[in-house]
Design a protein that fits this description.
- This protein is of the alpha/beta class.
- Helices cover about 25% and strands about 30% of the residues.
- A 7-stranded mixed beta sheet has the order 1-7-6-2-5-4-3.
- Strand 3 and strand 4 form a beta hairpin.
- The longest helix is centred in the N-terminal third of the chain and has 14 residues.
- The radius of gyration is 14 Å and the shape is globular.
- It starts with a strand and ends with a strand.
- The structure holds adenosine-5'-diphosphate (ADP) and magnesium ion.
- The site of adenosine-5'-diphosphate has 16 residues, from helix 1 and helix 2.
Length: about 150
Amino acid sequence: MTQERIIETNSPEETFALGETMGKAAKEGEFYTLVGDLGTGKTVFTQGIAQGLGIEEPVTSPTFTIVQVYDRGRMPFYHFDVYRIGDVEEMEEIGYEDYFYGAGLTLVEWGNLIEELLPQKRKEIRIEKDLEKGFDYRKITICEVI
Ligand code: ADP
Ligand code: MG
């Protein structure tokens, strides 16, 4: 069964706060994917998660490094951006399984691009704009297989 929750935000602060709430609630070993077009707020949301985990270092997109590890929070945070991954072999070179099945929280931006590698038990987070509802409006859908 799939459970879907929709949250609407109207400012970057609200999206950050949602991330922070989820970061505070996160349990070790959890796995999130994060999908959304450029400029929808993936980084804002991820910065909120990091804050919720008690991470004080600045969080940026690991677009060129694929993975960034933050280990000064309540638990390790493995932040992936797989947008530039060519094929799954690259993920194997990185040793992705140590992270995906590690003791921290994993968040994979553009996780849909490596569908075959994703753990079954995960939360999928999708951020979308709807310009008819305003420039700062975002619809955030959290989907979980339970
Ligand atoms: P992405 O990482 O998805 O490319 P960013 O998080 O870097 O996107 O940027 C999102 C941009 O949208 C920021 O400039 C932010 O201020 C703006 N923004 C406006 N409204 C919202 C909102 N409701 N939620 C998140 N960001 C928003
Ligand atoms: Mg980003």
